[in-house]
Amino acid sequence: MESPALPPLGYGLGLRRQHYKEVLATQPKVDWFEAISENYMDAGGSPRHYLEAVRERYPVVLHGVSLSIGSVDPLNRHYLQSLRRLIDDIEPAWVSDHLCWTGVDHTNLHDLLPLPYTEESLSHVAGRVAQVQEFLGRRILLENVSSYVSYTVSEMSEWEFLGEVAERADCLLLLDINNIYVSACNHGFEPLDYLEGVPPQRVQQFHLAGHSRNGEHIIDTHDQPIVDPVWQLYAEAVRRFGPVSAMIERDDNIPPLAELLAELEQARRIGREALQERVA
Amino acid sequence: MSALEELQRGFRDYLLQGRSEAIHPLVRATQERRGEAERRLVIYAEAYRLRLKEALATDYTLLAAWLGAERFDTLMDHYIHAHPSRHYNIRRYGHRMAQFLSATTPWCGEPLLAELARFEWLQGLSFDAPDAEPLGVEAIAAVPAAQWGGLRLRFHPSLQRGDFHWNVHEFWSALRGEEPFPDARYHARPTPWLFWRQGRSNLFVSLDAESAQLLDLARGGADFAALCEVLCARHPEAEVPQRAAAALKGWVEEQLVIGAVTKD
Predict the structure, then answer these.
(1) Is B240 inside any structural domain?
(2) Beta-carbon contacts of residue B37 (< 8 Å; ≥ 6 apart)
(3) pTM tops 0.95, yes or no
């Protein structure tokens, strides 16, 4: 594969219920929205109404948190069927989830838990991605999670693992720039090594977000403005990967829409400058 | 058990039960920093509980307000310990709360609690249900008279029913109106409540016992003739078809009905 199969969308925001009405009333300068799949799967009423109304006006991508691609449990057919129905209804530009596991033995831990980076995990995950893609009839994007533990049994770096999963399963990647920064701080690797280790032709989307500091570790809270080192890493990512679709993902402590739009403008500016440097 | 299974089960045992003996040796830590693996793992343990508590606090605002922060937090700790999450959607996590409150000391000694929980949970279920197109009055009117006996209805997915012995709706109104809670009052005969959605509006209303019985029967698959039989036990036979038809018309007008099938 020479380039991502899907055309870039520009600069987007996470769709949050606090902003539904304002988005529809003001139709802000946002190129696309990312909606959390689970918030709309099997659901009607108000949330679904707003998602469909936003979809009429903007491109939408779906972002899941419960696929649990790395779990040793069988894939959840009910989940996949429900996701497929939502995909049929919303017609998203693409669908993503996380490179992690979220539960075992049918107990859901509701967290994006890191995998050990071993050959066993690699072949397990790649096989399951292929199954999911076959079921959904489309390639999916997998996102790197932030983590606080790494495992003694890991045989390769996270970026080697991520790249290899993408190659073996022929899927695309969603790079969360903040998560790279958070994990780099927590595990003591160089974030630039991460960027350089990921196959560029697989990178379809960036997430930008903020985090919190908690003593000696950084916690990926996605509830704060983006900090300078993450902006710098984003600029590096644009220089390496080009005009990849980017969005701000705020999951908690949701500010007024205007604040996120201003942050998105900053992303546009930094992205534009980095692209010019790339061309030069 | 494969290494990956062992790791995931070890991590699960730590998050659910605090048992770290399996996962601890697998967590990488620098030798010179004592307790580093524990400090890293505890970030996950805290996030796990926090996330489930956020879900419960979102779903049970009335219970939380009535119990107060400290008692509600204790309740959540016990619920989380008793009930690991079984569904991928965290919105479903609290589904056993009313049952838990009814069956577990000390909360079972205060039966109002389970009803407060159930009243809000049923509203949530109604709110989250899938959409469906309500049936128009004309669709029912088009059913030939000869086929009415075998008429069965399908109801909107948002429809929820519950019977409540306590004046929980007054607690709900007080919470919404930011007024003091009323005195708790118990009624030996429960009040039936109906929760549903009309388009994007979430509604609930109390029913009389007979209306509730008819609706429950119809939801359970009883046909029109069976509803008439129930009414025959209480009303003069001549009034029965009219009463049953009025109930059905009311359901249609309230947008509770999404389908009607006849035997033929």
Answers:
(1) yes
(2) A149, B24, B27, B28, B29
(3) no
Q: What is the pLDDT of residues B139-174, one digit of tens each?
A: 988 999 899 999 999 999 999 999 999 999 999 999
| Whole-complex ipTM | 0.95
d(Cα A47, Cα A68) in Å, to the nearest integer? 24
Give the CATH number for residue B192. 3.90.930.50
CB-closest option in A49, A79, A109 to B12? A109
Interchain CB distance below 8 Å, B200 and A49: yes
pLDDT tens per residue, range A102-130: 999 999 999 999 999 999 999 999 999 99
A228-279 pLDDT per residue, tens? 999 999 999 999 999 999 999 998 889 999 999 999 999 999 999 999 988 7
Closest-CA residue of chain B to A71: B8
Q: Which two tokens stand for residue A14?
A: 């996470």
Q: How far is CA A43 from CA A37, B65, B126, B190, in A?
A: 10, 27, 10, 30
The CATH superfamily holding the domain A11-279 is Divalent-metal-dependent TIM barrel enzymes (3.20.20.150)
Domain boundaries of chain A, sorted by first residue: 11-279
- Does residue A113 sit at the B interface (CB-CB below 8 Å)? yes
Sign of CA dihedral B33, B37, B38, B40: positive
Helices assigned H by DSSP within chain B: 3-17, 36-59, 61-67, 69-82, 97-103, 112-128, 137-141, 168-176, 209-219, 224-232, 240-253
